[in-house]
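Bug report (template v2)

What were you trying to do?
Predict the complex of my protein with 6-O-phosphono-alpha-D-glucopyranose.

What happened?
Run completed; filing so the output is reviewed.

Input:
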Amino acid sequence: MRPPLTSLRMTLRFVLPLLLVLGAFAYSSVPLMDQLNLRWFMRDLDLRSATLAATLEDPLQDYVPQKAKRKIMQLFDRAILDERLFALGFCDPRGELIYKTATWPKSLGCARDAAPGRAGGRLVDLPQGAVHVTVSTLQREGEALGKLILVHDMSFIERRSADTRKYVMSVFLALGVAISLITVVIARISWRGWLDGVRGVLRGGIAQRAGFTASPEMLPLIGDLRALLNEYQRERLSDDDAKVSAPDKLRALLHNELAGDEVLVVSNREPYIHVKTPEGVEVRRPASGLVTAVEAVMRACSGTWIAHGAGNADRDVVDAHGRVPVPPGHSSYTLRRVWLSKEEEQGYYYGFANEGMWPLCHIAHVRPIFRSSDWEQYVAVNRRFADAVVAEARTEDPVVLVQDYHFALLPRMVRERLPRATIITFWHIPWPNSESFGICPWRAEILEGMLGSTILGFHTPLHRRNFMDTVDRYLETRIEEEASTISYGGKLTQVQSYPISIAWPEAEAQTDSVPACRAAIRRELGLAPDHLLGIGVDRLDYTKGILERFQAVERMLERYPEMVGRFTFVQIAAPSRSSLDEYQNFEARVRSLVQRINVRFGSGGYLPIVLKAEHHEHEAVNRYYRAAEVCMVTSLHDGMNLVAKEFIAARDDERGALVLSQFTGAAMELHAALIINPYHIEQGAEALYRGLMMPAAEQAERMRSMRMLVRDFNVYRWAGRMLHDAARLRQRERVMSKIAEHGAAPGLRRVV
Ligand code: G6P
C-alpha cells in the first residue's frame, strides 16, 4: 500500500501543473471576453436608447414648440432616474444646447457631439470615463425641432468585466480541480488493477500455475520487470553476501539459513596427498585452483570431503573407512578417500574427464576424445562417489557441494537417494556454446545428471548463458530465463554465475617481507639484486597459454634488446596428467621452446627463461609472487584462474604488474590488470615490457583497486552466495509444495 504522503505528493504533482495550465488559459482569454462583452453592451444600449428616444419623442413634440422648459426638465429628470442613463440634452436646429440635465458633462458640446453619427451610438471618452452617446432627430409635421441626445454611463461595463473575469477564473479553477480529481481517481483505480496484475505475474511460476494471466498490454513489460526484479534481488543479495566475507560468517550462514551442520564435499582431487619419499611419508597440497578455494570453505564449515585417494601413501594413514582428519596437525574436517582401480582411474579420470570433457569445455584447439569404455567407467565412478556421499551423510538433508566436470552425473544419483539434500554443483571450468557441447555423445545424460542439483554454478555469466542454451537445445525442460531456473522432472535447479576467489591472507601470514623475498629469490637464481623478474605459475597444461607466453618473452627481448641480460622469466610448472599423450607432447614442446629461447638470448650464466617443472608448495610460490616485477597469466581459456588473484593478494606492498589474458574469468573482474589477447604475441610482448617499466605510482594505483576487489569478493563470499541461493530455493520449494498440498484439498482451488 502506498503511504498517504506519497499519494498526496503524486496527486499534487499532477494537479498543480493542470491547474496552472488552465489558469493561464483562463487568464489569456479575459481580453477576448472583454471585447465580446463591450460589443454586446453597445448593442444593448443602442436598443435602449432607441426605445427611450421613441418614448420621449411624443411629449417633446408638444413641449419644445411651446418652450415648456419646466415640463421638459421634469421629463428629463424622470428619465435619468434609470441608473444607466447618465444625462439627457436637447439641441435646437441651430446646434444650441437648450435643455440639459444637471448631470450633462461639460465637455460634451452640442455642435460636435450632437452630430448624428452612424445608425447606433458611439463611445466618447470623457474625463470622468467613457460614455455611450446616441442622437435622435425630432421633427414635427416635417419641420425639424432639434436633436435629443442620450448619454449612457459605461462604467458599469468595467464593473461587469471585472465580475466576468472573476467568474471565468473561478469556473476554470473549478473545472481544473474536477478534471484533476476525476483523472487521479481513474488513474489510481487502473494503476491498482494493473499493479495487481503485474504482481500476480511477477509472483512467477506459482501465480501462473494458480491461474493468473497477464493482460495483453502488460505482456511486453513483464519480461523487463522480471529481469529488473531479479537484478535488484541479486544486488540486494550481494549486499547480504557482503557480510559473509569471513569464515565465521559463512559457518553461521550455513547453520542458520540451511539448518544444516553437515557439509559434504565431493571432488576428484583431494586436498592433501600423502606420498612416500626416501625421508618418509610427506603431505602435499595439489596444484589445483579448485582445491585452494574449497579447502578454505571446508576449514570454515567442517564436515567431510570425499575425494579420490591418489597418493601412494594415502592408504597408510586412513582408518578402516578410508577417513583421515585434516589439515594434518590442525584437524578441522574429515577427508574420506575413495579408492579407484587402475581401469577406473584410466577410463573415468584420464579418459572421459581429461581427454573428453576438459578439451570439450576449453576452446584450446585440442580435439576431445570420447570412448564408450571411458564413459562406462565415468558412470561407474560417479556411482561409487554417490554411494560414498550416501554412506557419509548422517542426515536426510545434508548440504552436498559437488565439484567440477568429473562428477556431472553425481548430482542426480545423489538426488535419487537423498531427495531432501541440498546439492550445490560448481563447474570450475568454462562451459562451451551449445553447438560445441553437442559433440559429446552423452550430452543428454550429462545435462540430466547436472540438473539433479539445487544450485548449479559457473564462474561467468557467459558460461551460465551457454549452459542454459545447451539445456534448451538438447533437453525437454521448463526454463525460466528471468529467474534463471530450470525445471526438469519436477525438480528446480537454479543456474547462476558465482565468480570464485581465494581466502584473503591475514596480514601476519606474509612471513618474509617483500625486500627479503626479492633479495632471496635473486640470490637463489644467481641474479643481480636489481635484475628484473617475471613470474608464471601453472600446471603444465595446454590451456594455460605457456607457449604463447614464452613467445611473448622472446618477442619482448627482440624488440627491447636492452632487456637481454636484465630480465628473466621464471615459470613454475606443476606436472599434470602426465600419462596422457597430449600432456606429454605439450611438455616436450614447452621444454624445447625454452631451450631455443635460452640458446638465442642466453649467455654465460644468464638464462632469459627459467623453467621449474616440479611441484611447489604454496609458500614457495608466494615468495616468487612477492619477488617479481610482473606476473603473467596467459590462459587460452580458463574458468577463473586463481593465480591472478593469488598474485594480487601476495602484493601487500602494492607493487607489481599483472598481465592477464582476456579469456580468463578473472579478466571480467580485474580491470586494472594489463589485459591481453594471448594469441597476439606482439601484444603480450608489449604488455610485459609495459609492466616492467610501469611507474611505481601507477603500479600502486592499479594494485590498490584490484586488492580491494579480491579482498571483498573472497572465497567465503563465493560460497556464501551459493548457500544463500540454496536456502532461498529450498524455501521456495517448501512454499510450493505447501501450495500443492492445499490446492489438492477440497474447496481450495486457487491460491493467490
Ligand atoms: C582444474 C580443474 C580442477 C583440477 C585442477 C588440477 O583447475 O578445474 O578440477 O583439480 O585443474 O587438475 P588435476 O587433474 O591435477 O586435478
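What did the reviewer find?
The longest strand covers residues 129-140. The CA atoms of residues 127 and 531 lie 107 Å apart.
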